[in-house]
Design a protein that fits this description.
The chain is mainly α. The protein has 4 helices and 2 strands; from the N terminus they run H-E-E-H-H-H. Strands 1-2 form a two-stranded antiparallel ribbon.
Length: 129
């Protein structure tokens, strides 16, 4: 009789753990951009809301910025409905290095300035195990 309860509790635990894992996977988003036709590394996993909450980022233009032709940041405009490649990156390049550089400047540059967050290749671009 006791073995039956242990088995039932074990099954409930496994189901609960599987459910939590599945729920956690739904929160994972990836930094994707149609400007990349090929990827040399895996896409960076990025939990947008969790990241911004932890980093204390409340204003979308911290990452989704817009500049005028003179290079001045427009504080009242946001590019959150656009891909980065719409402004950064050469059209037709299979692997646009300018777009890569811009992503790294924005994400990695902020992490370095704040002394928080990943800054090495393998901590953002994690290969599947």
């Amino acid at each position: 009789m006791q073995k039956k309860y242990v088995l039932i509790l074990t099954l409930i635990g496994i189901i609960a753990l599987a459910g939590l894992t599945a729920y956690a996977q739904e929160d994972i988003e990836f930094v994707e951009d149609s400007g990349f036709t090929t990827n040399t590394r895996p896409l960076p996993a990025f939990m947008h809301d969790e990241h911004n909450e932890k980093a204390g980022i409340e204003d979308c233009i911290e990452c989704h910025h817009v500049y005028d032709k003179a290079g001045n940041r427009l504080e009242d405009e946001s590019s959150e409905d656009q891909e980065c490649s719409e402004c950064h990156g050469a059209e037709g390049d299979e692997y646009p290095m300018e777009l890569v550089r811009r992503y790294h400047m924005n994400c990695r540059g902020c992490h370095q300035a704040e002394k928080a967050g990943p800054v090495t290749c393998g901590t953002c671009h994690v290969r599947a195990q």
